[in-house]
Amino acid sequence: MLTDPALSLPLLFFVGIAAGFVDAIAGGGGLLSVPALMWTGMTPIQALATNKLQATFGTFTATTNYIRNGIVPLKELRLAVILTFIGSAAGAIMIQQLPNQLLEDFIPFLLICFALYFLFAHKVGEQDRHKRITPAVFGLLFGTSLGFYDGFFGPGTGSFFMFAFVSLLGYSLQKAVGGTKLLNFTSNFAALLVFLFSGQILWLIGFVMGAGQVIGGYLGSHVTLRHGSQIIRPLLVIVSVSMALKLLLG
User: Which GO terms describe its cellular component (predicted)?
Assistant: First the structure.
């Protein structure tokens, strides 16, 4: 652990690239970026706040590319965007009321749970399927709740959104990635606005990792558009297993 986060800038830049790449394809980039930020010696609140800054760059880059290629159903997800924004802002406000020690004990437990979930989650289809709920209900249930979670903690939000898009709205994996990045960007941006007033963001670290996120988000979104589910499923498993081993052994 480093006492001065600025000493690890080169490494954090490359973590930003990796996190942006992973997040653009399968979600879960926070599983890389949050532990890396905490490794530098930041408090949990500083890590979460700075993570929102750097992640906003990657999700914006990937979302823009997906919109340009027509796999983001913007009209269908308008309500979900609004509710995700509200939920995320509420989560970011609440997380600042909790003591650091509680977060330090809670974060590794959550990361292990997410890794296990990603590993054992059911496989999803490659084509659009029948919708089980309407986009409005989806926005109310998942935009609000997952937005709140993303503002409160964050890692794994993208994968939860993807699973919900596929299993409940019947989206193909590629379309689900597009919708997920739109809502992920929304929640990141909403939480970032809240954290702007907290004084907890380490700006230099955030901008350095953000530069890496732009590169990773751009590359990851292009890989998704080209290879679709062939890369999404394997990457989910690899990220999950790697993080679980790191936490259990380290």
Answer: plasma membrane
Domain extent for 129: 11-249
Q: Give the rounded distance of the alpha carbon of 232 from its chain centre.
A: 15
> Residue 2: inside a domain, yes or no?
no
Q: Count other Cβ atoms within 10 Å, centred on residue 176.
A: 26
Contact in structure between 52 and 190 (CB atoms under 8 Å): no
CB atoms near residue 22 (< 10 Å): 25
Give the pLDDT of the chain (250 residues) as one tens digit per residue. Answer: 555 555 689 999 999 999 999 888 877 788 788 888 988 888 888 998 999 999 999 999 999 999 999 999 899 999 999 999 999 999 999 888 876 566 556 666 666 665 566 566 555 445 556 778 899 999 999 999 999 988 987 766 877 788 788 888 988 878 888 999 999 999 999 999 999 988 899 999 999 999 999 999 999 999 988 876 667 666 666 766 665 565 556 5
Give 169's DSSP letter: S
User: Which two structure tokens, joined as six digits, stand for 119?
Assistant: 């590993």
Domain total of the chain: 1
